[in-house]
Amino acid sequence: MIDEKTAWQAVSDRDRSFDGRFVTGVLSTGIYCRPSCAARHPKRENVRFFAKPEQAEAAGLRACLRCHPNDVARDEAAVKAVVDAVRMAESAPRLDELAELTGYSPTHLQRIFKRETGLSPAAYARALRSERVRGALESGASVTEAIYDAGYGSASRFYEEAGKRLGMNASVWKNGGAGTKVHWASVETALGSMMVAATDKGVCCLSFNEGEKELRQRFPKAELHKGGDDFQKLVDQVIAQVEAPGRPHNIPLDVQGTAFQEAVWQELRKIPDGETRSYADIAVAIGKPKAVRAVGSANGANHVAVLIPCHRVVRSDGTMGGYAYGLEIKKRLLEKEQN
What is the pLDDT of residues 105-122, one digit of tens each? Predict the structure, then answer.
């Protein structure tokens, strides 16, 4: 059994990495829970920790019906079975097939898999296949070989599914974006000089105090074009969002990342305006509580400032932490959202 101070901190943080290592007995309600239980935290004086569920039950407590603390080992085994099944399958298994494999209902399996991995089984399968294509292309395989070796039954299926995640089509990806047109413009905002760049699919870069040189470093083989009047409409939308960063927007994005990075970016977009989260909070939210440093790296890999609000991530002690475009801009963005 771990020490009680560490156990209580795990409960306070709802740290999933401690699930299965102990259970939390709440004497005032007569139940015991996982450390990560989403229920309202009990008072510390009403809590007793037990190494195993059996010990909690021997003390007269019953299992929480919300977090099902008895199912930790079974949940982990089910998630592993799904991961193995998806990796081994030639085509993505259906959810009902995976549910039958694990003995869970499809709805419950979907919930626990997303809780542990940050993705649904279907999204995990798509991400896995897309990453296989990327790896094959980067190692020199032909586009056709990469698509079929990754498990796609046809090239059209790849372009329909994985191509959307890659942003650019497979042959363009292989050639470092060669032939892709990226329009861009630099404009002045209340936060200083801002650069906006976009493909025909959406904004691919939003940065501060950068110009064509930095854009060329991000897209070394793309065709860069100064934006014209039509592009200005998109720029105006982006400016309006930067001036009022907390309001909802439907500005299209064209971003590319690994499955993990995209899970982090999706979580960033869920943070309510005017609020912040720590790197540890994001790691827990995507089901990877131990991946705090990896979350920081994914946060730094975001090339679309504000629209993917990496400025809302702070250190665990509440201090600002770092920001690619300087702490002053980060501070002012947060102030704009909170006012």
Answer: 888 888 888 877 767 888
